[in-house]
Amino acid sequence: MTSLQPTTHDDEQFLDTLTIGRRIRQLRLERGMTVESLGSQIGRAASQISVIENGKRELKLVELQKLARALGTSLDGLLEPEPLSRRDELEISLERAQRGPLYQSLDLPPLAIRKGLSDAAIETILRLHEELEHLHTQRAATPEEARRANTELRAEQRHRDNYYEDLEHTAAELLRTIGHTGGPLSQRSTAELSSHLGFTLHYVPDLPITTRSITDHHNHRIYLPTKQTGTDPRSALLQAIASFVLGQPEPHDFGDLLRQRVETNYLAGALLVPETSAVAFLTRAKTARELSVEDLRDHFAVGYETAAHRFTNLATRHLDVPVHFLKVHSSGVISKAYQNDDVQFPTDPLGSVEGQRVCRWWSARQVFDVEDRLSPYQQFTDKPAGTYWCTSSIQSSANGDFSVSVGTQFAHVKWFRGRDTKRRLTSRCPDPTCCREPGVEASEHWSGHAWPSARLNSSLLAAMPDGSTSGIDKVEVYEFLDRHAGSHPTHS
After folding, report:
1. Percent of the chain scored above 70 by pLDDT?
2. What pairing do the DSSP bridges indicate for beta strands 221-225 and 214-216?
3. Which of 109, 139, 169 is the C-terminal boundary of a domain?
4. Across the strands, what pairs with 424?
């Protein structure tokens, strides 16, 4: 018999919603109540009761208490972890499967769960779904292993609002040891911190190309490159210090490697932008309705990406503002992503975000079309999950141009500078007709008559965006051909 699969934190929360809904429905039917009568007792429309029973809305504690009283049970009775029946278990499993990334990636219509759908039919569908998941996992090579580990780590970050309290305390203690009382951390103070920990600094021209620094624990030396083009000279040193302070061992797998990288970068960021002074600065800015990543960057003399990361670390915990973060290559492919504001990132069938292509109407891609790359770029975007506001900036590196974006739901934009922007676009993604499929006329004219040569992505975590074996964006290819062909501007 098919059973429920192991879940992530988000799955458990979703499963509870479905289980509570089924329990409410079962109790209502046992008491001979209609959705109308139950709704009238708690002050809700019958349609809202149906939404609750189908597990499509999370309930507040007050609502749960009202429902428990109306159904003649206790609050604990509604929150039992196990479904009431085998049928309920099957329906919950099927609902979860349909809302998961694998099922959604198959572009199948939703399957209505009706009484006429037998238990045997549901079990067959679930077995097929499990086999598809197994095949995806079995085919995954080493890069996909890293992407799966990254997906799990991102879920953990969301669960804790991307805030690591223990690392904040460690950073504060380190800063106290060198007498740093707040504000930007100077390069001299950074060197003093390494000296306090017993290390001498050595800048060398021949550091291996695959390393940012090397720490010699035997001789208490930290080796850094003589040339650090395009990077904050404090960054590599602070990451080396952070790795030493955290006592990180040799990673056993990609999960260890990624977790260590996140913790090291977090601690380095917490040293560059100390929590106490940063929260005071951001709180004043929120009170004035002038929150700005640019101001945080300038006040602490750090790069834009560091400021954006620190904003996501502190905004939800201290300012009660849910946010999302995106780092996107100029090709539109995601390099890094984080969210706790329910924005829907593109994912592959295993739920991985890295390597997927962002909707071309999002701020993270629109910013590349703006000539003025020095001024902040802000935009409202109407998305399937709601309206979001984002601020984006382009950062250049040896690996190309990337946009770094921080965004939030419309309800929270009132605290940000740039909320008066007139830019507003609409995104229908993941609907492929939004921006992933060329128009009918362009397809009819160019399909079979264009053969672009792909620039393959060699990044460890990169995946070919869904719908394209080579990773080529046909929309951009056809638009390019239209601009340069000249002879068929209307595809006649």
Report:
1. 85
2. antiparallel
3. 139
4. 380
Asked if residue 55 belongs to a domain, the reply is yes
- From residue 462, alpha-carbon distances to 254, 279, 392, 452, 475 in Å are 14, 34, 22, 20, 20
Query: Residues 240-263, buried b or exposed e (16+ Cβ, 10 A)?
Result: bbbbbbbebeeeeebbeebbbebb
pLDDT of 58: 79
- Which of 82, 115, 139 is the endpoint of a domain? 139
Query: What's the rounded Cα separation, in Å, for the pair 393 and 378?
Result: 9
Confidence (pLDDT) at 492: 42
For the chain, give the percent of residues with pLDDT over 90.
40
Give the confidence band of 373 by pLDDT, cuts at 50, 70, 90.
confident
Q: Outline where 326-366 has alpha helix (H).
A: 363-366
Tell me, what CATH number does 87's domain have?
1.10.260.40
Answer whether residue 9 shows pLDDT above 60: no
CA gap 169, 166 in Å, rounded: 5
List CB contacts of 48: < 8 A, sequence separation 6 or more.
Answer: 39, 57
